[in-house]
Write a structure and sequence with these properties.
single chain, Protocatechuate 4,5-dioxygenase, Chain B, 10 helices, 10 strands, 20% strand, Protocatechuate 4,5-dioxygenase beta chain, dioxygenase, EC 1.13.11.8, Xdiol_dOase_suB, ferrous iron binding
């Protein structure tokens, strides 16, 4: 059967994509970020993951406020990468496994998640920004993606606990699929940032690191938090952190082993990547880069 072999938490800041496309991987302001993804990419290559299930949010690219589903799953052989104003990216379309995606959709609905399904829609930076830092893409991606979009833009939002339970349901869907697939779940967004209003540019490194500690060791504490708590501690847009709980829920109820963590405050967003496997904790391969500005 298919099985989940690990989980990744990642920021999806659009400037990551811009810097990547402009070849700034060795730029002093960006190298601490890009270097932080290398151990994760190496782990994915070593494990030969077949599928990445992405929990992300659409930034009014595929959906708009006149019809914005709480949860939506993409089904299709290919998904174009959206042009969000900087031109088309030099990346192949994201690949999909229709049989697996359709199984996921059916399993989630039968598990009482009333999930929407989309086809032939572009995928924006919520998924596409970190993707080439995780997987090589020439001549094509090495595996397929299941895009699961979560509404963190238009209230009412799903609760942190509901996102965790979505992850649990995704795990059940994966484990009920008969083909032998190695699946990695990816939660994206955040961490602390606010890009509008009086607190524009707000960050909270202390809270970011506390969030990562709780995500690993006490997700129940994060599930008890209200949206207002996330906004107060991390800024308005940091409510995206609830999507990391979907990834954590998919890893199961037992302990997780943090293999790598990199934290870098280079722009208005605290950019982070963390890698987990199931099992007893061990020391991570990295902790954090010093906060900086770029």
């Amino acid at each position: 059967m298919a099985r989940i072999i690990g989980g990744i938490g990642s920021s999806h800041v659009p400037t990551i994509a811009v810097a990547y496309d402009k070849g700034k991987q060795s730029d002093p302001a960006w190298a601490p970020l890009f270097d932080g993804y290398k151990p994760v990419a190496a782990w994915l290559a070593e494990k030969q993951a077949d599928v990445l299930v992405f929990f992300y949010n659409d930034h009014c690219t595929t959906f708009f406020f006149d019809l914005y589903p709480t949860f939506s799953l993409g089904v299709g052989e290919h998904f174009p990468i959206a042009d969000e104003g900087a031109g088309l990216r030099d990346l192949p379309p994201i690949r999909g496994n229709v049989d697996f995606q359709a199984h996921m959709a059916e399993s989630l609905v039968n598990d009482e998640f009333d999930i929407a399904v989309f086809q032939n829609k572009p995928i924006d930076h919520g998924c596409a920004s970190p993707l080439p830092l995780l997987w090589p893409h020439k001549p094509d991606w090495p595996g397929t993606v299941v895009p699961i979009a979560i509404n963190v833009l238009q209230y009412p939002l799903p609760t942190a606990r509901r996102c965790y339970r979505l992850g649990q349901a995704v795990r059940r869907a994966v484990e009920s699929y008969p083909e032998d697939l190695k699946v990695v779940v990816v939660g994206t967004g955040g961490l602390s940032h606010q890009i509008h209003g009086e607190r524009t540019g707000f960050n909270n490194t202390e809270w970011d690191l506390k969030f990562l500690e709780l995500l690993e060791n006490d997700p129940e504490a994060l599930m008890r938090m209200k949206h207002a708590d996330y906004v107060r501690l991390g800024g308005a847009e940091s409510v995206e952190q609830i999507m990391w709980l979907a990834m954590r829920g998919a890893l199961g109820a037992g302990p997780v082993r943090k293999l790598h963590q990199n934290y870098y405050l280079a722009t208005t967003t605290a950019m982070t990547v963390v890698l987990y496997e199931e099992g007893e904790p061990v020391a991570a391969s990295a902790d954090k880069a010093e906060p900086a500005t770029a």
